[in-house]
Amino acid sequence: TRAEEELVISRWPRKNRSRSPWAPLETWLENNAVALSLEPRTASERDTLSFSTEEAGSEVKLASSDLSRRAVPTFLHQTVTSLTKEELSRSGSLTDSDPRDASRSLTKSMKEPTTSPSEFRGYSWGSAVHAALAYTAESDSDKTPQGIFRNLLVEHGRPLDEHGEPTELRELIGLVKAVQSSSLWSRAKTAKRMLTEISFALPGLSDGGPDQEHDSESESGPGRTRRQLDLFGQELSRDEEKQVRSRQGYGYPAADIAEEENTPVSVLEGVIDLAFRERGGWVVADYKTDVGTDPDFTAREAAYRRQVDLYAEAWAQLTGEPVKERILFFTAQDRIEQW
After folding, report:
1. Burial code of 124-158, b = ≥16 C-beta within 10 A, e = fewer?
2. pTM for this model (two decimals)
3. Confidence (pLDDT) at 43
4. What residue ranges define each of the domains in the chain, with the CATH number in brackets?
């Protein structure tokens, strides 16, 4: 055992000791162990309730009613991805049985054969690619971290061969190297400031729809809003934050109006793959792993553009600085779209 000084064993009644897990040690215990004589103790009385079952049930109902009355949402939560999927659903390009559903992708067998390159690879493959690119962006080494890439594929449930090795490891390494040799990567690496996998939750940013036009001078200029995020660690005061939230021009409902009308503020959440700052403003980029040969790709591409637009709007709002360029990088196609 792990006992270093003393081990106390509660022995079974003599007639049942053969059933005890200590039975093989009974002879040794009889000859060497010290018997402890413990006085039997009478169990203390249990506490009793001072009210009846009916009274308890009545209190529960009152508490439940009070919780329901108070359960008024203080904010409405949306994600950039969910808004993109809503657009795809409206266009008929995404259905409940669509194999692109992330939950279906995650439940696939780890030993399932690799999908055809012309098929949509799913959420787990995209997540592994994003994680590999994020690690590479933060790494100072020029060597390919093969072991880390392998672990990422295993972690995301990608297919394994008969030896338990990811079948897509070489493909992932090649994809990352292709991205590293791209013009986008060169720009990001030489930029004044580069950030990857940026999580945000921004109150009040509205979705103006896929046809909303974007003008970096009018939308993202410093005159439109004050920044909420200081990249060098200075936080806004509560009064400053309230001023930012009350600016109607950037989709922010005034805090006082929201309170008077009891209208919850909408909070938009997302993760920006890559943002870097050059002369004239920020560049916001999003990676996509679509091969682009399936019939629904055109609709997805339009939704992806709106997704990047939302990222750019959020980043301009958070930093108070202009976003001069938006980029979609289709890694499997080695193709960049920028606007």
Report:
1. bbbbbbbbbbbbbbeeeeeebbeeebbebbbebbb
2. 0.58
3. 84
4. 78-107+191-338 (3.90.320), 110-181 (no CATH)
